[in-house]
Every structure is written in C-alpha cells, then in structure tokens.
TrEMBL record:
Membrane topology: Multi-pass membrane protein
Gene3D superfamilies: MFS general substrate transporter like domains (1.20.1250.20)
Annotated localization: Cell membrane
Keywords: Membrane, Transmembrane, Transmembrane helix
Entries under Pfam families matching the protein: MFS_1
The keyword ATP-binding is annotated on this UniProt entry: no
Domain of life: Bacteria
UniProt source species: Curtobacterium luteum
Name used for this protein in its record: Major facilitator superfamily (MFS) profile domain-containing protein
Main location (coarse class): membrane
InterPro entries: MFS, MFS_dom, MFS_Exporter, MFS_trans_sf
Major facilitator superfamily (MFS) profile domain segment(s): 23-403
GO molecular function: transmembrane transporter activity
Length: 409
C-alpha cells in the first residue's frame, strides 16, 4: 500500500487535458444540429399525418413506422463500423436523413410520408451510436465521463428547442417550410461531418457474425426497463400536440421545452445523488414521478396542468433515461459497452415501434366507447401508466444498481 501511494499522488497531480478539442466541439455541434432537426420533426410528423387525412390510428402508424427501420439498422451498427470509417458513415447517414426530410416536405399523401419515416428511421438508427462513438474517440481517457456528459447535454438542448421551433414555424407558415429547414440544417451537419479529421490508421476489421456482436444478454433487464419507460413517453410524443389542440391549449409545444429544461436542471443534481446513494435509489422515485405525470396529463384542460405534467416527466423519464443506460453499461466488460448501449437502444426503438400504434388504436376505441375525443385522450393517458408501473416493479427487482463512477464511459 505504501509503495503504491507515490504512484497515486503522481497520477492525481498530473494535469488533466481539456475535453474541448476542435474535433470534440465539431462532433458536438454536428450532433446538436442533427438532433435539433430530428426533434423538430417529432412535433411536426403527427400534424402532417392528420393534415393528409390520417385518423388517430394512422397517425400512430406513421409516427411509429420510424422505429421499424431504426430498430433494424441497430443490428448492423457494430458490423458496419468495423468495415468503414465512422466519419464516412456519419456523412452518409446525414445525407440519408436529409432525403427523409425532402420526402416529408414533398409528401402529397400518407404513403410518401410513411416512406420518409422509414428512411428517417434508418438514418437515426445509425446517427446516435456514430456520434457517441466519434465523441468518445475525441476525448481523453481520463475525461470520458464528463465529456460524454456535455455531449448528451447538447442532445437535451435539441430536445428542448426542436419541438418548440417546429411548432412556432408551423404557426406562421405551411408545414412544408419547417421540413425544408430541417433538410437544410441536416445538409449543413453533413458538410461539417465531411470536415472531421480522417482516421489515417483505420483498417477494415474482419467481422465475425456472432450473436454477441449484435446483442448483450447481460444488458437485457435494463433494455426491458427502458422499453416500458419509453413506451410511456412515445405515447406523449405521438399525441400530446393533438391532445393540446383538442383542448384548445395555446403554445402546446411549450410542453417539450419545459420537459427538457427540467431534465437539464435535474440531471446534474440527480447524478450526484446517484453517486452517493446508488442508481436505484434515484431511479425508482423518478419513475414514480413519471407515472404521476400521466395522471396529471390525462386530467389537463389547460396550459398550467400540461406544463406541470411536463415538469414531472422531466424529473421522471428525463432523469431515468441515463440512469438505466448506466445499468446497461455497467453490466458488461468495458470492451462490450458499445454492444450494451446498442442493446439499450433496442428497447427504446421497440417502444417507439409498438406504442404509437397501440396508443392510437386505444384512443380510437376509447373515443368510440365514450363518444368523446376528450374522454378518449384521458383514458389513453391513464392506461399508459401501466407500462411505467411495470418498469418500477422491474427496477425494484434489480439486484445490483452500479453507481455512475463504476460505469464511466
């Protein structure tokens, strides 16, 4: 022990390199711009579906179709990144997403809009793991956790600003214009991606197709937990704008802004609490707040209650998401964290595939039963407390919840 102390002191006194290299700043900006366009489209696609004649069920189908190809493309991220440079893959991914926005803007019917969603899903299936990997590549090893934390904050800002910007534009112009702006910003991100430094030492790897190359069995429980949590939030993403319009609530897009602002304010505090008391001690109360948010949303008839639901969702789902991810990353050896992260994304993608369609069908059935669309929304959001309740039970049954410092990226 005594002999090791000088080594530890030397390590502690060694100056820490800044995370803010040119490459890290550039990839963070690319992620910010690309995700800003993505979150703008989250609020716009349900409105576009309704304008093109879709009923509640078809709005759910079009919204959820995104997850079909996103989920499918996740299986190939690990294989493709071993064969091609990540910089080139990111450039191609952003061009593909730009094509999706072009289809949205030009869509004369639900079929073309649906095609755009499928193309968009492929692009987004690759975008998240690619930008995360490139950000990690640009960081010093001893600053990985803080650097990834800042990178994820840029994504949270996109979540806060995107829907509000999209709906603000929608209030002043036709729905095609916001989609064209998304196209332009994504194209700008692609140009920035092409300007990233080349990886001169890259050598294509021989890829052996085995189950563990695509899926981390150890991360299954966190993936199932996040599936049930994301199922709840997917229903909000798909229907909260239409819900607000049904109740004549002005500025319904503020829901997303308040949600993300609450999440941004809460995450540093809840992260420190998780450091001290463990992940589960913070995660379970946050899940309870998320469940309560659906009750408040279901009973909302004006902007104050809608924003109260947004605050609860920010303290709930917004806080739980990185904590569940830490469970996934902590369940495997360091060299398998990319696969564990991808497994975690499978749970999210599956939720966004199934839930909008199921929630749309539930809304249609409840509206028919009660004879009122307002009552239909109330019933749907109350039913969506059930998947969150299942996530709470699974979290309570999780034997070990590693602390964030055990899961440094």
């Amino acid at each position: 022990m005594t002999a090791a102390q000088p080594v530890l002191r030397d390590k502690e006194q060694r100056p820490r390199r800044s995370i803010w290299s040119q490459r890290f700043v550039l990839i963070t900006l690319i992620g910010l711009i690309a995700n800003l366009a993505q979150y703008m489209s989250i609020a716009l696609v349900p409105v576009a579906s309704a304008k093109l004649g879709g009923d509640a069920f078809m709005v759910g189908v079009v919204t959820g179709a995104f997850a079909i190809t996103a989920l499918g493309s996740r299986f190939f991220v690990g294989v493709v990144t071993g064969r091609f440079p990540k910089r080139a893959l990111l450039f191609a991914t952003l061009l593909l997403i730009a094509v999706a926005f072009a289809l949205y803007a030009a869509a004369p019917n639900l079929g073309v809009l649906l095609a755009g969603r499928l193309v968009h899903g492929i692009g987004m299936g690759f975008l998240a793991p690619l930008t995360l990997a490139l950000a990690a590549d640009a960081l010093p090893e001893d600053r990985m956790a803080s650097g990834i934390g800042w990178f994820s904050m840029s994504q949270a800002f996109s979540m806060a600003a995107g829907p509000a910007i999209g709906l603000a534009l929608l209030g002043t112009t036709s729905i095609r214009i916001p989609f064209l702006i998304c196209l332009a910003t994504t194209a700008a991100a692609a140009v920035m991606a092409w300007g990233l430094p080349r990886q001169h030492d890259f050598a294509p790897a021989r890829v052996r197709l085995r189950a563990e190359s695509f899926f981390a069995r150890e991360a299954l429980r966190p993936a199932v937990i996040v599936f049930f949590l994301a199922s709840g939030f997917a229903s909000v993403n798909a229907f909260v704008v239409l819900f607000g319009r049904e109740h004549d609530i002005a500025s319904v897009g503020t829901y997303f802004t308040v949600y993300a602002a609450t999440m941004l304010a809460a995450r540093p505090i809840t992260g420190r609490l998780a450091d001290r008391y463990g992940v589960r001690a913070v995660m379970v109360p946050s899940m309870v707040l998320f469940l309560i948010s659906f009750v408040v949303l279901a009973l909302s008839h004006g902007l104050p209650m809608l924003l109260a639901a947004a605050v609860l969702a920010g303290l709930g789902y917004g806080v739980c998401q990185p904590l569940v991810q830490s469970l996934a990353l902590g369940s495997v050896a360091p060299e398998r964290r990319a696969v564990a992260g991808s497994t975690n994304y499978f749970g999210v993608d599956l939720a966004y595939l199934i839930t909008p369609v199921a929630a749309g069908a539930l809304l249609t059935a409840a509206t028919g039963s009660f004879g009122s669309t307002t009552a239909g929304y109330t019933a749907m959001f109350l039913v969506m407390t059930l998947p969150v309740a299942v996530a709470i039970v699974l979290a309570l049954r999780t034997r070990r919840t590693p602390r964030p410092e055990e899961n440094s990226l």
